[in-house]
Amino acid sequence: MTEIHGSCDPAFESVRGLLQQQLAQGNEVGASLCVNIDGQNVVDLWGGHADAEKSKPWEKNTLTGIFSSTKAVVSIAAHILIDRGQLDPNERVATYWPEFAANGKEDIKVSHILSHSSGLPAWDGGDHARRDAGPGSQSAYQTSTYGHLVGELVRRISGKSLTQFIADEIADPLGADFHLGISEEDWPRTADIVPFPAEYAAAFNFDPESFLGKSAAGSALLPLLPNDPKFRKAENGSWGGFSNARALARIGSIVSLDGTVDGKKYLSPETLDAVMKEQIQGNDPILFVYMRYALGFGLPPGKDFRSVPEGDGICFWGGWGGSLLVMDRRRRMTIAYMMNKMEFRTIGCARAEEYVQDIYKNFDAKK
């Protein structure tokens, strides 16, 4: 029988059984799963292996590449500046970053960047590509540009790199094992990404001149990138984070606990109310799914999106292949799931859906 490690409140014991089942059936190679309620981890589980050969066990402190789940942490960095009055979502980006206004970008606001409606989902000839639609008129997920755009705002305002700001203001104060780029000394405890089957690679043969092709250029459409030494060393706020479920749940609890964790205030409830307001919705041409965007997070898109339940006070983000972070202010609950075996999905995965649904079922039964 596949061994699962960690702790689990008896009320959530079925979650342990589900993780064990997924590992035993080979749906998972290695994974960590954490549920934090009112600041306490009621589920903190891990198991499986950190490599495709299954020779290296997944340990308590194992890290893995989390792809775009990185963006959730980067968004919280921006929210901290908003809370301090240093960054105004309704202000033009060029107010903080004058050079940004070049090539017709002078009307793009901070809110457009944070809601993926800036019209800048791609790189083009050293500058940002533009959609025909104006900023704020349609979402187009900023796969590879989000981290740079938000990161430069952070640098212009704080004087710190995005990596340093996240370490100083979020990860270190929380004691959260999150890294934007990872040092060589941590590589021995970093799990290898196990990609989806090679036949899916044909899905990425986009016309390079098409909108979708341009948005894919330079993005994380190579599933093995987190295994590459050069990628591991880079600061990439779009998809270059390395962490585990325990650490991501700790960071996400900033949102779920109304901005205060262990007595330290990171955000005010009023700021959270503001950044969780819907900015734009519709079928995202990059993610191929219907999305509702707030400032830096997704909001529950509806009953057909099984990774996140419907309801007020809930926001989320996830990473390519399956990782997921759900933050629920009404229940004061954070769910984080990190794994190394990728599924061919842009947001969440079938396993994440099962875990989340089981967790909510247990939470509601516990009340």
TrEMBL record:
Signal peptide extent: none
Residues in Beta-lactamase-related domain copies: 16-344
InterPro entries named among the record's database cross-references: Beta-lactam-related, Beta-lactam/transpept-like, Beta-lactamase/esterase
One Pfam family it belongs to: Beta-lactamase
Protein name listed in UniProt: Beta-lactamase
Lineage: Eukaryota, Fungi, Dikarya, Ascomycota, Pezizomycotina
